[in-house]
Design a protein that fits this description.
InterPro entries: Ribbon_hlx_hlx, TacA_1-like
Pfam families: TacA1
Mean pLDDT: 92
Family: Belongs to the TacA antitoxin family.
Structural class: mainly alpha
Strand content: under 5%
Shape: elongated
Number of domains: 2
Radius of gyration: 27 Å
Protein name: DUF1778 domain-containing protein
Keywords: Toxin-antitoxin system
Number of strands: 0
Length: 93
């Protein structure tokens, strides 16, 4: 643990069966139960966050997305006006 790292305490009641399971798993890994629990919770949290940040598409949606990228529709009149306004504002860049 890095020096100066802020620590907090998590206190939650668990059943005797779960406590025994966690204790056994920690023993198998050769670590303290608290270290085992912290590592397991951290892994689950990281996995949950990663899964929430990934966009999953069906095969049909993936194909439609690829088709739109490879053959985009022509710009709408509103988009044309927006580009013209941008050119006017930025001096023709």
């Amino acid at each position: 643990m890095a020096t100066g790292t802020s620590m907090t305490h998590l206190d939650t009641p668990i059943g005797a069966d779960l406590h025994a399971m966690l204790k056994r798993a920690a023993e198998i890994r050769g670590v303290a139960m608290a270290d085992f629990v912290v590592a397991a919770v951290q892994e689950a949290a990281q996995r949950t966050i990663a899964e929430a940040e990934v966009i999953r598409l069906s095969l049909a949606d993936s194909e439609r997305f690829a088709a739109a990228i490879l053959s985009p529709p022509p710009p709408s009149p509103a988009l044309e006006r927006a580009f013209a306004r941008r050119r006017d504002l930025l001096g023709g860049e």
